[in-house]
Specification:
Number of strands: 11
Helix content: 10-25%
Order of helices and strands: EHEEEEEEEHHHEEHE
Strand content: 25-35%
Number of helices: 5
Distance between the termini: 33 Å
Largest sheet: 8 strands, antiparallel
Radius of gyration: 24 Å
Length: 250
């Protein structure tokens, strides 16, 4: 017999993939990087990323942000294209130069909605603007828009990439979840500022009819290593055909 034993308190086998969930602050370290740029960040991918995807016959550009904190480096995508965003009821989404967005059949006439820079929003644009507001810590009422939005939705991210250096000391507060037990994912319905930390806005949106987060995460939203919740299996009720451990098996 040959058995190389170890003390039970010594970790000698893999503990599985460590994943994280909850709310935390992150820096943005790259936007749509090449394979070479990813390698420079210590992210050893094996081929250049493809930033275009076809969904149900429609091509989308994946605007990809790589984010990092002391525990985790991951990424998230904003799907964009040049089509105007239209609701199921046929209303257009409108956006202005201070990042306000709303839905309306024609030009919005709400008192609170400013007219400066008013135009129809493109697919994915509102999400990009909301993320930029939080990341750049734009004050309410200040300008936040992209001159090259028509190019961005087609894959020219020069204007967005410039923000990585400009905002290198800024952080954005994000909700992180886990999919399929091993993939990190980012909640894109809400992006938070470092100050003030309005974590209540995440809770409000998660409870909204259209705010679901298709991922697992700690219900307290506390940041840390993710521990999957135990799914208790209820045993079948015993019947006359149920096998007992005392029965003869032959």
């Amino acid at each position: 017999m040959a058995i190389k034993s170890n003390n039970s308190n010594l970790e000698v086998a893999g503990g599985g993939i460590k994943t994280y969930s909850g709310l935390a602050n992150f820096k943005v370290i790259a936007v749509n990087p090449t394979m070479e740029e990813l390698h420079g960040l210590g992210i050893m991918v094996k081929q250049d990323p493809n930033y275009f995807v076809d969904l149900n016959g429609t091509e989308y550009f994946k605007l990809t942000f790589w984010i990092k904190n002391d525990d985790l480096t991951t990424r998230f995508d904003i799907l964009m294209n040049g089509a105007e965003r239209v609701s199921q009821s046929g209303k257009n989404q409108w956006i202005n130069s201070i990042g306000q967005a709303t839905w309306s059949d024609g030009e919005p006439t709400y008192e609170w909605f400013k007219k400066e820079g008013l135009r129809k929003a493109l697919t994915g644009e509102e999400t990009l603007v909301n993320f930029t507001k939080a990341w750049a810590n734009v004050a309410n009422g200040d300008e936040v828009y992209f001159d090259s939005i028509a190019k961005i939705v087609k894959g020219d991210v020069t204007e967005v990439k410039a923000l990585v250096k400009l905002l290198e000391n800024n952080e954005v507060r994000l909700l992180i979840g886990v999919k399929d037990g091993k993939y990190q994912t980012v909640y894109t319905k809400v992006f938070g500022r470092v100050k003030p930390q309005r974590d209540d806005l995440f809770v409000k949106n998660l409870n909204d009819e259209y705010g679901a987060f298709n991922a697992e995460f700690d219900s307290t939203l506390a940041w840390g290593v993710f521990t999957p919740q135990l799914a208790v299996v209820t045993p079948d009720a015993e019947t006359a055909d149920t096998v007992s451990e005392d029965d003869d098996w032959v």
